[in-house]
Design brief:
The complex is a heterodimer.
Chain A (H helix, E strand, L loop, with lengths): L4 H14 L4 E17 L2 E19 L2 E7 L7 H14 L23 H4 L3 H17 L4 E20 L4 E19 L2 E11 L7 H14 L9 E7 L1 H11 L5 H5 L20 E4 L20 E6 L2 E2 L6 H7 L22 E4 L6 H8 L2 E8 L11 E12 L2 E14 H7 L2 E2 L4 E2 L6 E4 L2 E9 L3
Parallel strand pairs in A: 7-12, 11-17
Antiparallel strand pairs in A: 1-2, 1-4, 2-3, 4-5, 5-6, 7-18, 8-9, 8-11, 9-10, 12-13, 13-14, 14-18, 15-18, 16-17
Chain B lengths: L3 H11 L6 E17 L2 E19 L2 E7 L4 H12 L14 E2 L16 H16 L5 E19 L3 E19 L4 E6 L2 E2 L11 H17 L6 E7 L6 H7 L5 H4 L21 E4 L20 E6 L2 E2 L6 H7 L7 E2 L8 E2 L3 E4 L8 H6 L3 E14 L4 E13 L2 E6 L3 E5 H7 E4 L5 E9 L2 E9 L2 E9 L3
Parallel strand pairs in B: 4-6, 9-16, 15-22
Antiparallel strand pairs in B: 1-2, 1-5, 2-3, 5-6, 6-7, 6-8, 9-23, 10-11, 10-15, 11-12, 13-14, 16-17, 17-18, 17-19, 19-23, 20-23, 21-22
Helix pairs in contact in B: 1-2, 3-4
Classes of the chains: A alpha+beta, B alpha+beta.
Chain lengths: 453, 462
């Protein structure tokens, strides 16, 4: 860190008290990352990034004022204090935002992998070149690799406030992905493969490339299916995307503002007994893990849905106070530029015991749904309705018989949760995207599918 | 913002492994954001973005690095680390810096940073007036943003360029709703200017008008669907030119061969009455800049003249690949992004002669009048687009008939250009947007007078 954090903090807090703030907090992050992109066998982008910034927030009466800076020197302190004071003065939101005194207890998951930190830029370039080459060479029908990327990142977080909170945490991560484009008989299909984790030795770029290529090729020759009701298995990666599109129904903030149909349903059955949804902040190697949230509240490994029953919403301090509930350690900030919101850590549907093939056998005749597109526009988290373009495979007697494309799958997230029959053991955890979302493949009963005719 | 000797040392370090060009972009950007929902100020945030972005070229290979810490040791460390991605021996010397002089066109008087309750008041006035229209107005929301961006751009060829860009914008939406439908109407004026820009604005009238439009559209019958002539209103109607045509003229896509307009310079790509311009020099306009983010003075680039393609929008790196000089079109959201070719203020020029919007409508027996466009999506590879129309009317017998709701316009950019058969002269205007692409989100204007497309697919529910 380029500034003396403690001296800066003391100076900031002293000037804030002088300006009339009763309590205040500093939130500081320092992150670095390296991105290596490869296109057609050559490094097309090499980007090294260092990002640091701090947020100041302070309480003035019942209002909280915020200001941030990426410039870290004593000369920005008057700017931070004066602007936070003015911002507190115009806020009219009536809900009270509080500080956390940092009493804990804290469980500290392992978040920093030293072996990953020691990997050199040359090794990362080599891995990206391998990923690109393996994807291109996996099958003669692969025409090009449109995206090929290896990204490593390290982040440090410090939070301290005048109630005694004083926390720090360091984490690192690896994200790598490739997208293959395959063509045959004028038909073009893409396949996306992603690897996330905190271990370099678990990363096999050649295998990841072959997987991306295999995905693209496996969809070649796809045709639509007749419109109708089908039994469906939703692929693990797509189920995790669906969860990502609808996760906010489990946010207390959304519920309190009237944007979640689950409002008032804690303790009631909202899903089939096969469904358990967990938010686990403490799992080593999962990129949403953290020992404390953006307010300094200890995080947990907790059930959100257990055997179909809604156990809790995800809370920050403000929403917990309003609901007279306990905070759940989900009061995160998108960055030091943002105010405190609510988001999950690692939110995932608990996998079942059986295999993916077993899941298809259980379904018998039906469709495997994969490659959702249009999740931004085609999913309404307030009503739960979705209508998504997808592709996949037609399954007969438990065996995939041919690829399927140009289908639109329509349903409702809440109904889908109630209709889940079973889940396989192939849990997939997605990349970090305001939390990490995971799911196994899910036999979800029947859905309406529009295809041809 | 930084000492010349330091910048020279950083660029020299950047070239220590054989790079043939290095550039440093330093930015200090003070920002304000106030958000209102339903007349209540819910968020107010202020901050300073500060950092430096370093670019090194070796031929047409580029390396990029950025940091917030511009202390000497750190900048030198970042430069050496980035340089390690290249392999070679130094062969380029950093030339002595010469400060770039350019005429000052954009002048700022009333700098933001003063009393925030005045800004909150503008949002609340619009909201109160909108809600007063009646219970049909289910929600209002608005946002005020400003930023003062100071930049320094220096490169190994001796360029030393500085600029200040002051942006202010206020956006407002009114939502009318019944049990089954929602309709939104909005306004969002912005400019490269201080708060003096807003002196003549009547927020009360504007808020009420947005609400009345939303209410009118809510009670309108659904739009018809099918192929028909479409008259597109001035200002934000230019979004189709921006999204579905001019993105395909950006060197980012041309240099890769990934555009329908590759190899089309000097050829007709639009009907003869079409002249399209990207002009970054217009005084105090939202998309304007004195210099682009590589330090090249911006220009008025005539993209299409009487239907013929005249130029692409070119930045330095893609220009090297294409063998074309920069058109002053390199832009980036912040130091976090390497710059690339982007638009500034992009518009269809008004026609010569005297053609009123009424003349354009009068020439149309039956069709759609898309008075104000809404959001949409475009497939960049094919130019196929789908845009919602925020405010639409039917045209019958050469006259604007009643409002219709839920209309979308579906087509392909290259076909729309060919099918424009009327352009008005009298009502040219511009509207503001944020354009997202490879180098982040940058302010851009779109514009046009009223135009007519002879045939377009209207997607409606009727």
């Amino acid at each position: 860190m380029s500034i003396d954090f403690n001296a800066f903090k003391e100076n900031l807090f002293a000037q804030a008290k002088q300006a009339g703030f009763s309590d205040c907090e500093i939130y500081y992050t320092n992150e670095s990352s390296l991105t290596v992109n490869v296109f057609e066998g050559e490094v097309s982008e090499y980007k090294s990034a260092g990002e640091a910034g701090l947020s100041f927030r302070g309480r003035l009466g019942d209002k909280m004022g915020y200001a941030y800076s990426e410039k870290l020197s004593d000369e920005v302190i008057p700017f931070l204090v004066e602007n936070a004071r003015q911002n507190a003065g115009i806020i009219e939101d009536e809900d009270i935002e509080e500080f956390y005194p940092g009493v804990g207890p804290y469980e500290t998951p392992a978040l920093y992998n030293k072996a990953l930190a020691a990997v050199t830029p040359a090794q990362k370039i080599e891995a990206a070149l391998t990923l690109d080459k393996a994807t291109r060479r996996a099958d003669p029908r692969v025409e090009s690799v449109d995206y090929c990327s290896v990204i490593t990142q390290t982040g440090q977080l410090f939070i301290a406030n005048t109630l005694g909170l004083n926390l720090t945490e360091t984490a690192n991560a690896l994200v790598s992905y490739a997208e293959a484009r395959a063509a045959e008989n004028g038909q073009v299909k893409t396949g996306f493969g992603i690897h996330t984790g905190d271990s370099w030795s678990d990363f096999d770029p050649a295998a990841a490339g072959e997987k991306a290529a295999q995905k693209a090729v496996s969809l070649l020759g796809a045709k639509s299916v007749p419109t109708g009701k089908y039994r469906v298995v939703i692929k693990n990666e797509d189920m995790s995307e669906l969860l990502q599109a609808f996760w906010s129904v489990f946010s207390a903030e959304a519920a309190q503002k009237g944007f979640s149909l689950l409002k008032g349903k804690v303790g009631t059955k909202i899903a089939s007994e096969a469904v358990t949804l967990r938010d686990d902040a403490l799992r080593p190697g999962w990129l949403g893990s953290a020992g404390f949230d953006g307010e300094g509240v200890p995080t947990q490994n907790k059930a959100v849905i257990e055997n179909g029953v809604l156990k809790t919403f995800l809370h920050n301090l403000k929403t917990a106070r309003k609901d007279a509930a306990a905070p759940t350690g989900n009061g995160f900030r998108a960055s030091f530029k943002s105010s405190v919101g609510v988001r999950p850590t690692n939110l995932y549907l608990a996998p079942g015991d059986g295999s993916y093939d077993g899941l298809l056998a259980e379904m018998g005749d039906g469709l495997v749904i994969a490659n959702f597109s249009g999740l931004h526009a085609g999913a309404n988290s307030t009503s739960g309705d979705f209508s998504l373009i997808a592709s996949g495979w037609l399954v007969e007697k438990g065996v995939p018989v041919r690829p399927v494309e140009q289908i639109t799958v329509a349903g409702n997230f809440f109904t889908l949760l109630q209709n889940v029959v079973s889940l396989s053991d192939d849990l997939f955890m997605g990349p970090p995207s305001g939390g990490v979302f995971g799911a196994p493949s899910v036999y979800a009963g029947e859905l309406n599918v529009s295809g041809e005719g | 913002m930084l000492d010349k000797h330091l910048v020279q040392d950083v660029l020299t370090a950047a070239l220590s492994t054989g790079g043939d060009f290095a550039e440093l972009f330093v930015e200090n950007n003070a920002k304000n954001n106030i958000a209102m929902v339903g007349g209540v100020i819910e968020k107010a945030l202020t901050g300073v973005d500060y950092g430096a972005g370093l670019r090194i070229f070796n031929g047409t290979n580029a390396v990029y690095a950025y940091t917030n810490d511009t202390a000497r040791e750190n900048l030198l460390r970042v430069a050496l680390e980035a340089a390690r991605a290249l392999k070679g021996t130094p062969h380029v010397t950093v030339l002595p810096f010469v400060k770039l002089a350019y005429p000052v066109v954009h002048v700022f008087r009333d700098l933001p940073g003063g009393d925030k309750s005045r800004l909150a008041g503008m949002l609340k006035t619009a909201s109160d007036a909108a809600k007063a229209v009646g219970p049909v107005i289910a929600q209002t929301s608005g946002q005020y943003t400003d930023s003062i961006q100071d930049v320094l751009i220096a490169n190994s060829e001796g360029l030393w360029a500085e600029d200040r860009r002051v942006y202010t914008r206020l956006s407002f939406q009114a939502v009318a709703a019944n049990e089954t439908e929602k309709q939104t109407a909005s306004f969002s004026p912005g400019c490269l200017s201080g708060l003096e820009f807003y002196e003549g604005f009547d927020w009360k009238t504007m808020g009420a008008q947005a609400a009345e439009t939303a209410a009118t559209m809510l009670s309108a019958p659904v739009a018809p669907s099918g192929k028909m002539p479409v008259v597109i209103g001035p200002g934000f109607g230019g979004v189709i030119l921006h999204e579905a045509c001019v993105h395909s003229l950006e060197a980012t896509f041309i240099a890769k061969g990934a555009s329908v307009f590759c190899g089309k310079l000097g050829q007709p790509i639009a009907s003869e009455i079409v002249t399209a311009v990207d002009d970054g020099t217009m005084p105090n306009e939202w998309g304007s800049l004195h210099i682009d983010d590589e330090g090249t003075p911006t220009k008025r680039n005539v993209l299409v003249e009487n239907g013929v393609l005249k130029t692409y929008l070119v930045d330095r790196l893609n220009g090297l690949k294409m063998g074309t000089p920069s058109t002053g079109s390199a832009r980036r959201e912040s130091y976090r992004y390497a710059p690339t070719s982007r638009m500034t203020n992009t518009f269809f020029a008004p026609s010569e002669g005297v053609t009123t919007p009424e003349d354009v409508v009068a020439a149309t027996d039956y069709g759609l009048y898309a008075k104000k466009m809404g959001g949409g999506s475009v497939n960049p590879a094919t130019g196929e687009f789908n845009f919602a129309v925020e405010e639409a009317y039917l045209i019958r017998g050469g006259k604007v008939a009643g409002p219709v709701r839920g209309a979308t316009l579906i087509g392909r950019g290259s076909e729309v250009l060919m099918n424009i058969d009327r352009i008005a002269s009298a009502d040219w205007s511009q509207a503001q947007g944020m354009c997202g692409s490879l180098s982040g989100s940058v302010p851009t204007n779109v514009g046009q007078p009223t135009i007519r497309v002879s045939e377009m697919i209207v997607g409606g529910r009727g």
